Amino acid sequence: MTKTATGRPEPKPYILGIHAYVPGKSSGKDGKPLVKLSANENPLGSSIAAMEQLEAPRGFSTGAAAYPDPDSKELRAALAKLHQLDEARIVCGTGSDELLNLAVQAFAGAGDEVVFSRHSFAVYDIAARRCAATPVEVDDRDFTADVDALLASVTERTRVVFLANPNNPTGTWIAPEEVERLHAGLPKDVLLVIDEAYGEYLAPEFQVIGFDLADAHDNVLVTRTFSKIYGLAAERIGWATGAPHIIDALNRIRGPFNVTTSGQKAALASVDDQDFVRMSREHNTAERARFVEAITALGNHGICAVPSEANFVLVRFEGEVQAETALNALGEAGYAVRHLPSQGLPDCLRITIGKSEDMDAVAACLRALCDDLGGGRA
Ligand SMILES: *Cc1c(COP(=O)(O)O)cnc(C)c1O
């Protein structure tokens, strides 16, 4: 009577083709808690105004028993005001992860192709496969999205192109003119999703290209998140802006109550506290420069930093100290960083920019490893 060979429900083969997302670690092999420099979280925490919202006592009638605002109205209005966008062209999500997945689900399916760069965000491959679409990974150049290669990979089956800008896990970005060139080279019926999870870490003048494209064209969706510079990863809030027909499609398939009440309130308070955002950006820019300088000093040991515009640095190990050795030594020293062999980066560690003293300790640990292993090849 049963239709499957095993006589039990069988997941679709394209679902079994998915490698589940591996989150950054926060403890060592022995379970010892580590300082977490593995998930690109904000080392300064979150805005005090947001914390006050999260900690506010919640009465029964207005609190947890009531469904949240299904349309995140106040939050969308505040985001529209901050970024000079039309609130009707904004949708909020359970993290931007939800919106990245919905973008594929709404516009691609079996037989369609979803294009993205090698060494970009692991969610794009999952988002494509879970809709039975075909992920198409395109070679990057110097750990950076290669616009010509992306355009060359577009076929008549391409429905969605992802660009993470700045990119995770490499930290690299492409300049506004390159983003424009990518968009201009795409057929008008291909959706370009510009994932700006780290957009706020760029200097303000570079933050607007995605929004401008999303405003001017019918085939651009820009996603942002409260998980990174806003320091609200635990609350799971993302948002996106694009043309009305794109937002309409996402609204049809998103969870109807996809952002919690506490999340909406905390995000709203965070939007109003741009001083915290500026402070976080300044901390990141200064500490990243200091950390890159410390890494560059290990150049004669084959260790170097990929230029980063984000809140982390991809450190390459091409000398006698191997990435895995460094990963273990940092674990011993109390630090969790990200090793990504499954993303084709076995010789690299992605290290989140943390507090000043933690970056000093990480650099010192790597320096000590180099010293232990001899004089390098200088
Ligand atoms: C962290 C990250 C996200 C966002 O995740 P949320 O679901 O909003 O927490 C999206 N894209 C990239 C490239 C990221 O690194």
TrEMBL record:
<dbReference type="InterPro" id="IPR050106">
    <property type="entry name" value="HistidinolP_aminotransfase"/>
</dbReference>
<comment type="pathway">
    <text>Amino-acid biosynthesis; L-histidine biosynthesis; L-histidine from 5-phospho-alpha-D-ribose 1-diphosphate: step 7/9.</text>
</comment>
<dbReference type="InterPro" id="IPR015424">
    <property type="entry name" value="PyrdxlP-dep_Trfase"/>
</dbReference>
<keyword id="KW-0032">Aminotransferase</keyword>
<dbReference type="Pfam" id="PF00155">
    <property type="entry name" value="Aminotran_1_2"/>
</dbReference>
<comment type="similarity">
    <text>Belongs to the class-II pyridoxal-phosphate-dependent aminotransferase family. Histidinol-phosphate aminotransferase subfamily.</text>
</comment>
<keyword id="KW-0028">Amino-acid biosynthesis</keyword>
<dbReference type="GO" id="GO:0004400">
    <property type="term" value="F:histidinol-phosphate transaminase activity"/>
</dbReference>
<dbReference type="InterPro" id="IPR005861">
    <property type="entry name" value="HisP_aminotrans"/>
</dbReference>
<dbReference type="GO" id="GO:0000105">
    <property type="term" value="P:L-histidine biosynthetic process"/>
</dbReference>
<comment type="subunit">
    <text>Homodimer.</text>
</comment>
<protein>
    <recommendedName>
        <fullName>Histidinol-phosphate aminotransferase</fullName>
        <ecNumber>2.6.1.9</ecNumber>
    </recommendedName>
</protein>
<dbReference type="InterPro" id="IPR015421">
    <property type="entry name" value="PyrdxlP-dep_Trfase_major"/>
</dbReference>
<keyword id="KW-0808">Transferase</keyword>
<dbReference type="GO" id="GO:0030170">
    <property type="term" value="F:pyridoxal phosphate binding"/>
</dbReference>
<keyword id="KW-0663">Pyridoxal phosphate</keyword>
<feature type="modified residue" description="N6-(pyridoxal phosphate)lysine">
    <location>
        <position position="228"/>
    </location>
</feature>
<dbReference type="InterPro" id="IPR004839">
    <property type="entry name" value="Aminotransferase_I/II_large"/>
</dbReference>
<keyword id="KW-0368">Histidine biosynthesis</keyword>
<dbReference type="InterPro" id="IPR015422">
    <property type="entry name" value="PyrdxlP-dep_Trfase_small"/>
</dbReference>
<feature type="domain" description="Aminotransferase class I/classII large">
    <location>
        <begin position="33"/>
        <end position="363"/>
    </location>
</feature>
